[in-house]
Each structure stands twice: as structure tokens, then as C-alpha cells.
Write a structure and sequence with these properties.
4 helices; membrane; mainly alpha; binds zinc ion; flat; DUF378
């Protein structure tokens, strides 16, 4: 049972991290080239674009909230205090 939990957590982490990175890269593209990849790929389904943005935001919150436990550097920093 614990292994399953770990597996689920790992999968969630990968999905959330990837989504957050997609959002960050998309923002970078918008800033650099005025090119919105998400809009270009999914622009024909405006509802879906919105869902992706919301998922990216939720993923960022998830990654940020779990970062202290996932990241060696931050984990060490926090435990030193
Ligand atoms: Zn960190």
C-alpha cells in the first residue's frame, strides 16, 4: 500500500512539474517572441486553453507546496534552522 502511495505521489509530481514547466516556458515564449504555444496548439478550443491555464496554476501551487520535501537544497536549508 505504501508503495502505491509513493508511486501515485511520484506520478502526480511528474505531471504537476511538467505542467508548471509548460506554463513557465509558454510565458517565456510570450515574453520573448510574443508567441503563445498553448493558444496556438489549443486555440480552437477556448475552453481547453482555460483548463490548461488553470491546471498550470494548480500544478505550480502543488509543486511549490511540496518543494521543501522534494528538494534536497531547500530541505537542508529548512532543517538547519
Ligand atoms: Zn529547492
Amino acid at each position: 500500500m505504501r508503495r502505491v502511495d509513493k508511486q501515485t505521489k511520484a506520478t502526480l509530481h511528474i505531471v504537476a512539474f511538467s505542467l508548471a514547466m509548460v506554463g513557465a516556458l509558454n510565458w517565456g515564449l510570450v515574453g520573448l517572441l510574443d508567441f503563445n504555444l498553448v493558444e496556438m496548439l489549443l486555440g480552437s478550443w477556448p475552453g481547453l486553453v482555460k483548463v490548461v491555464y488553470i491546471l498550470v496554476g494548480a500544478s505550480a501551487v502543488y509543486v511549490f507546496a511540496g518543494h521543501k520535501d522534494d528538494c534536497k537544497i531547500c530541505g537542508e536549508m529548512m532543517s538547519k534552522k
